Amino acid sequence: MLKTCSELSRLLEEDPIGTAPMWTKCIVIELPPPWSAKIEESKHFDESLTSYINELNQTGHNIRLQCILPDEQYSVPGMRRVMLFTKDPKFLLAAHRLEYLVPEAFLTDLCKSLIKSAQQAEKYSRFKQNTESVRDILICTHGNRDRCCGSIAVPLYNQLRRKYTQSPDLMNSIRIWRTSHTGGHRFAPTLIDLPQARYWAYVDETTIDSIIDKSGPIIKLNKNYRGCSMVSSIQEQNVEKKLLFDLGWIWIDSKKHISTVNASKENDTHLIDVFYLEPKMNSKQNFQFLIQYAKSIATMNCMKEGNKGLNKKYHVIKNSKM
């Protein structure tokens, strides 16, 4: 009997690190159902916006599109929510957030203006939302794209949705959304933690509280972390994970920078420099890592024969402090 891709991934004990999509900007758009397998082909999605994003990406930009379903408590009838998360050019910290709630007639123009520059969107300043302290948890329940996300992820969403709408305080600090495909549906349930821009895999009731609260032994989440979107390569995602799991939750809120200083395509080795500011001692810590290719793991098709592709794995070797 053919198995789902999420079952096969768990049986293979596949480590999901290095599979988080990487972007410099991520635009999140509230989109009513029905949703198509490809979100940009959905009934209420303006195809001119798809063309605009594609054109920018073809000229060197790296823009990610996510859609969220309207929510009876977060949404406003006749209005659409748009969030833009932008990578900080200096530090690997939280993404910069801009959020708007606009009439549907203004949606496409606002999105294009936001993607181009924040200044272009000033004409919509009256619709800007004060949500800088809000954390958004996006859970992929895109069933038309993949059956794993549409089945095993929905109970997790329902559980979190109930929990985080129990009081105004919780609702004002964390919102739980159903989102479109996050990539890597074999890791279902998957979620995106914004504005941290961290992707998590195989999330369940035993891991979700630790992720949201940033509490408990982080080592227990070793096989749940897909990586941070705001680095520049799979190899840098491996290094970022190494430091997150070595230093613990304090790493997330520390100012830090990761950069590749040398890379060899011939033997797939990479030299990566890291510095971070230790918040308690207010001191700068420097590290260097050698990343070496280890192996590739075949990724399976969902309910189909054959392999879908390969997932590269690396050895992360921490050198002494620079």
Main-sheet strand order equals 6-5-7-8-9
| Count of spatially separate domains | 2
**Percentage of residues assigned to helices:** 10-25%
CA distance, first residue to last residue: 53 Å
Please report the total strand number as a whole number. Answer: 13
Poorly predicted sequence stretches spanning 5 or more consecutive residues: none
Beta content comes to 25-35%
Counting copies of identical and different chains, the oligomeric state is single chain
Give the overall shape, derived from the CA principal axes.
Answer: globular
Sheet having the most strands:
5 strands, mixed
CATH fold title of the largest domain? Glutaredoxin
Mean pLDDT: 89
Order of helices and strands: HEHEEEHEHHHEEEHEHEEEE
Structural classification: alpha+beta
Q: What is the top-level CATH class of the largest domain?
A: Alpha Beta
The CATH homologous superfamily of the largest domain corresponds to: Glutaredoxin
Overview of the molecule:
- The protein contains 8 helices and 13 strands.
- The chain is α+β, with helices and mostly antiparallel strands.
- The strands form 3 sheets. It has a 5-stranded mixed beta sheet with strand order 6-5-7-8-9.
- The N and C termini lie far apart (53 Å).
- The chain is globular and about 55 Å long.
- It folds into 2 domains: 5-221, Glutaredoxin (3-Layer(aba) Sandwich); 233-318.
